[in-house]
Amino acid sequence: MRQRNNELGSEFIQWFREVRSHCYSLNLSDGQLTELALQGMSPMLREKFNGQEFVSLVHLVQRVSTLESQHQTMRKEKYLKGTAAMSDPYDVDSDGDNLEVATTKWT
Fold it and tell me: Is 87 helix (H, G, I), strand (E, B) or coil?
């Protein structure tokens, strides 16, 4: 089994678990199953977790989910970093509040 290009690591492990549940005669320890799942993951994830030992698939899922969450947060911050709110100081209503706010993104 191999992780697909657009598939999250946590989704791949769930799929791995489902396939594993159909292999009744497969007799591997939790550590061996985890190593097998890790071998099927994307090269980036394999490299990130190279040399680390995982006692179970649950432990691997926790680490992968944490990494993916951090990665998503960093991408969101990077995307929002180039965005700024600007307003026209001469465009005010009777209360002195700005009526219109425009956003722009620098590239």
Answer: strand
Tokens of 92: 């005010």
The span from the CA of 103 to the CA of 9, in Å, is 35
CB contact set of 96 (below 8 Å; sequence gap of 6+): none
Q: Per-domain residue ranges for the chain?
A: 9-105
DSSP secondary structure letter of residue 15? H
Angle at 40 between CA 38 and CA 44, to 5 degrees: 70
What SS3 state is found at 64? helix
The pLDDT tens digits for 29-83 are 888 999 999 999 999 899 998 888 888 989 999 999 998 888 888 877 766 665 5
What is the Cα–Cα distance from 107 to 56, expressed in whole angstroms? 44
Q: Which two tokens stand for residue 91?
A: 């465009």
DSSP code of residue 98: B
Provide the 8-state DSSP code for 28: -
Tokens 């993104």: give the residue.
Answer: 105
